Amino acid sequence: MASVIVVGGGAAGLVAAWRAASQGHAVTLLEANGRLGVKLRISGGGKCNITHDGPPKALLAAFSGDQARFLRPSLHAFGNGAVLELLRREGVETYTRENGRVFPQDRPGSAAAVVAAFETLVRRVGVAVRTGARVTALEGSAPRLAALRVGEARVEADHVILATGGASYPETGTRGEVLGWLRGLGVPVKPWFPALAPIPLARPRPAWEGVALRNGELRLCAGPAGRRLAAFAGDVLFTRTGISGPAALELSQAVERARRGGAAWLAHASLLEAPEAVDAALQAEARANPRLRAATWLQRHLPERVVEDLLAEAEIGRDLMLKDLSKGGRRTLVGLVTALPLGAPQPVPLARGEVAAGGVDLAAVDPRTMALRGWVNLRICGELLDLDGPVGGYNLQAAFSTGYAAGTI
Ligand SMILES: Cc1cc2nc3c(=O)[nH]c(=O)nc-3n(C[C@H](O)[C@H](O)[C@H](O)COP(=O)(O)OP(=O)(O)OC[C@H]3O[C@@H](n4cnc5c(N)ncnc54)[C@H](O)[C@@H]3O)c2cc1C
Question: How far is the CA of 347 from the centre of ligand 1 (A)?
């Protein structure tokens, strides 16, 4: 029996502590917050999208190549089925939505029920849970971590598992400081980088707050010619300061990289209507219904609340009839419908991401055990690793799988 300290009582740390104690080790779980699983409680808007349905291969395909290769062994050892079975035995029944996302049965506080289940699990196997215990320093050097500092106290153990999460939503306890300490110890790390976050716009549209653009894709373009750098199909939602919604979150990491690299701008393009088809339809409409207002026509394609502003910006009178539309005006309308320009992004906030990209370099970690290469008693799991999947339950699954591998000592 070995002594094990797990730092971080989130998704990865809870599973790591449960697994290590289940194998007979003496486990202490140190959590900075006053209670466990604070980020888990707000996950999925409080409903907790626990994991994603499907075989390991399909789940891995959601991650980038390096991340998928790294996750393969741990996902096979402790996949979505294993997580759901564990929770089911603790009374958390789940269901799968049409899009493959798995949630606890709908009832108020369903995310809290997931945390309660993990808390029961770790306490049942004898984990000593210490909340309000923020680790403030790591002591030692490769190949051995000598101790941890928790305020004035110095804590030692045979094995230390770091599961301190990412650097987004710092109010949930994840300030990301451990990555800096590891870098100081010579561990290869990639700096934190924003991901799955809303995108502020240089020219926000506060009057459009709450408006959704559907049936399209968000495009990231560069230069005046609009070279397409990346795109993501899905809804876009206007916020007071910019855009959010599935497509904005998924594209946010690429947007921030492009923004830092130079000029980049965004557009929302219709996937239903090609420019030539829209132009032909507009001309046909003008012949069949010459007195139709341009504004009325535009409202068929774009949300009512945005139409007036767009027409004013294009200097097209709101009462202008299709018969009086110039060739240039027609081109403008077709352009707005097929690729609505959203302008340049502002810095994407790391703090508002559902996940933080960056973390401990995967090449420095054994993917079967989560042991840090060159160290004999230090393991890393969860979002502290350089892992970031898309929205859909992938990030929690990655935390559960890597936590399980780290706890298998
Ligand atoms: C708003 C929001 C919604 C999300 N929804 C989903 C979802 O529905 N599905 C999904 O798959 N993913 C979701 N995610 C992502 C997911 O929550 C994280 O990827 C996951 O929680 C990472 O697990 P973790 O255990 O690595 O880190 P965390 O769950 O963040 O846990 C880390 C813990 O370590 C503690 N800690 C940090 N530093 C120290 C220290 N120095 N000393 C002691 N303790 C420390 C923190 O207080 C924290 O409790 C969401 C994220 C956010 C922000």
Answer: 23
